[in-house]
Amino acid sequence: MDELTRRSLIGGAAALAVAGRAATAQGGAPDERVPLWPGRIPGDLGKRPVRKVNDRSKTPGAPDRWTTGIDVPALVVRRPAQPNGAAVLLVPGGGYGFLAYDNEGTEQARWLNALGVTCFILLYRLPSEGWGERRLVPLQDAQRAMRVIRAGAARFGIDPRRVATIGFSAGGHLAGSLATRFAEPVYAPVDAADRLSARPDLAGLIYPVVSMDAAITHQGSRNNLLGPTPAAAEVEAASVERRVGADTPPVFLVHASDDGTVPVANSLTLYAALLTAKRPAEMHLFDEGGHGFGTRLPKTTPASAWPTLFAAYAARKGVFPA
User: Fold this and answer.
1) What is the pLDDT of residues 102-149, one digit of tens each?
2) Strand, helix or coil at 26?
3) DSSP letter at 102?
């Protein structure tokens, strides 16, 4: 093990410990981790990646972890003090090359927990880390996650008819894929949970990668998901805007016009496809914000209002309480 890797692992372990102590200090229970697959993981070729955590934070007690090497895909459960029955599957981004665990996971769970929403942070496999059928690996985990959440509804204290998803950047692509490909058979059923629907009741896509079309996609996400030279059929199958159908759930879109990483054309293209299919959709475009802002924008920046706008939309659609 080289020195850089050793320091990353030690730093990541320390950050996890700090986060756990912080949760306890705030009265929250320790994180509960629920593995997605009870037996063999689909696409397991016998050599799993090694989990690594890189904490990029410069503020003590406020971790900013990037995670790679997801060897055991799982849900991290964050429960509110006063649950209202609503649930959200949180899908961090990272270009399908890492997971922005805090910016687009734990920090999102914090504001949702304050509203009484039970959160499930998805630790999904990264497609370029040695799994079979790489283009399906994240969607396998996302479908299975929705089914595991619904199968455990009584245990988690949630209503299985009020489960939304929120995805960010490449996680937005995965959440959008889940919203449009929830019924696609991408893995062999493993237990009774797989008889349940994987359709989210609402999808929030925040500065999402949508299309795999080379003209507007985020090239890193496309390369990690499909490889450097995907076939035309693979590009079409993985482009969310081409998968919208009559059963696509309501979609909430947020993007900044000055996003220099994922062009705003991604959200515009999907919104147009949703309108053409006559599916419920709401889109908010802001002139400033860039990319990857999560909930970290100053309150003086209009895009910082997106969580309030999302909560209002989820309430209008009956997923959050009125």
Assistant:
1) 999 999 999 999 999 999 999 999 999 999 999 999 999 999 999 999
2) coil
3) I
